[in-house]
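=== RUN LOG ===
request id: a7f3
mode: sequence -> structure
chains: 1
length: 325
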Amino acid sequence: MNKVSGWSRKGMAALCGLVALMPLSATAVEVQFGTTGKSDATSIVSYIGMERKMFEANGLTLNWIAAGSAARAVQQTLAGSLEISIAATDQTVRAIAQGGAIAIVAGAVGAAPFRVLGQKGVNGWPDLKGKVISVGGPSDQTLFFFHIMARKNGLKDNDYDLVFGGTTPARFQQLASGAVGAAVLTNPNDLMALDAGYSDLGAAPDYVPVWAQNNVFVNRDWAKKNPATVTAFLKTFVQATDIFYDKANREDVLKILMKYTSSDRSVAERVYDFYQEKKIIMPGAELSEAGIQAVVDSLVEIKELPAPIPVSQLIDKSYLAAVKK
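=== RESULT ===
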């Protein structure tokens, strides 16, 4: 007999070939995913997930949108145009404090990987008096870190002027053009600036060691209706984080860093080693409640919040717990 349930073996083989060629995205769930930008090293876990097609393997297709700022990422998630986002924790805390229906569901970036770079010829903090400083925005954590660092180095808030540059690449351009006396940058642009001869005025983790810089957060209403999608995203995120921390993957991760951040190998290696040593990426995408509390306390200190908010009101552990089962 050369028949199998009415099909020829040749026909069955052809059908199987067609199925194998069908893209996973044909049946995948599309997720509206937002970040501040799409070129800094803090998104390395997302880059790994994209490059290795891990989201697709878990039944998802990402429509990755760069919101341009953490505040806009939060606003768009609140509005529902974004469903899952990764951005600065302070913006999510502010939004929830005002009644916004979002929830932090996983950790992304633990320490604050920011550095203050001065113009060539700036030899120390006193040289910043009367200069213009580029930070992310009027309610951005880069401004908070700069205030903390400047005050500890003897500068008053009125000793310098501020310009709000948006993303790190934009702030780096302002520094490179000579438009500002200093800028707060993250990786890899801070290392590129160092290599180009700009002055190193210090790193934020040395001033604020306990911190939760970026977290994964969701639109609460959407997440309640789509728990399997949230879980699939976090499963991918945890898997990609594990790949990052497995040093057997060093070469592959370096190539991904260079591709997505447009950095050379020397810069990528230093970013990789720094992230590994300092555990910049949250291992296992775990939530750092102490780090989130530090963010809340900072907002109270600068009078952005009238009183502390319990961390339990900011987070939802259920989705990550489902992944870890």
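=== NOTES ===
DSSP finds 14 helices and twelve strands in the chain.
The chain has a mean pLDDT of 91.
=== END ===
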